[in-house]
Amino acid sequence: MAKAACAGEMARDARKMARAARSPRRGGLDCGGRPGAFRPKVDHAKCEGKGVCVAVCPYGVFEVGPIGEADFRALPWLLRLKLTIRGRRTARTPLADACRACGLCVAACPERAIALIETAQ
Ligand code: SF4
């Protein structure tokens, strides 16, 4: 996908996206990579559910909502308590297969809670 078309899909927070795009922490891969080659992985021990990833992802990969029970149980008790106080809100990736590895979410996350993981495809 051309960059211009990609920008057309960005009905999100343009200011946050521009800041993330300039970050040296960005993965550096162009928007338009092959969908499904990478997936974002959220570290629920770090995520505070602020939704910056939702604001910057051009492909709507993220949402913020209640953490899954298995992920919740896997956390240490202090983090479970912290999450419970926040209503168990965390970033989730319902459209992870749509990721094109642009790296905006990685650069934008204030908690450094997102990593891009190469899939086996
Ligand atoms: S790298 Fe992050 S911001 Fe970019 S498409 Fe994938 S999930 Fe969305």
Q: CATH top level?
A: Alpha Beta
| Main beta sheet | 2 strands, antiparallel
Relative strand content: 5-15%
Report the radius of gyration as a whole number of Å.
14 Å
Average pLDDT works out at 82
- At the fold tier of CATH, the topology name is Alpha-Beta Plaits
Measured between the Cα atoms of the first and last residue, the distance is 19 Å
Put simply, the count of helices is 6
The computed structural class is alpha+beta
Helix content: 25-40%
Count of all domains: 1
Within the largest sheet, what's the order of strands? 1-4
Folded structure, characterized:
The protein has 121 residues and is of the alpha+beta class. The protein has helices at 3-8, 14-22, 52-56, 69-73, 77-85, 104-108; strands spanning 38-42, 63-66, 89-92, 114-118. A two-stranded antiparallel sheet has the order 1-4. A two-stranded antiparallel ribbon has the order 2-3. The site of iron/sulfur cluster has 14 residues, from helix 6.
List keywords for this structure.
two-stranded antiparallel ribbon; binds iron/sulfur cluster; alpha+beta; 6 helices; two-stranded antiparallel sheet
Short description:
With 121 residues, the protein is of the alpha+beta class.
SSE map:
Layout: H1 3-8, H2 14-22, E1 38-42, H3 52-56, E2 63-66, H4 69-73, H5 77-85, E3 89-92, H6 104-108, E4 114-118
Bound molecules: iron/sulfur cluster.
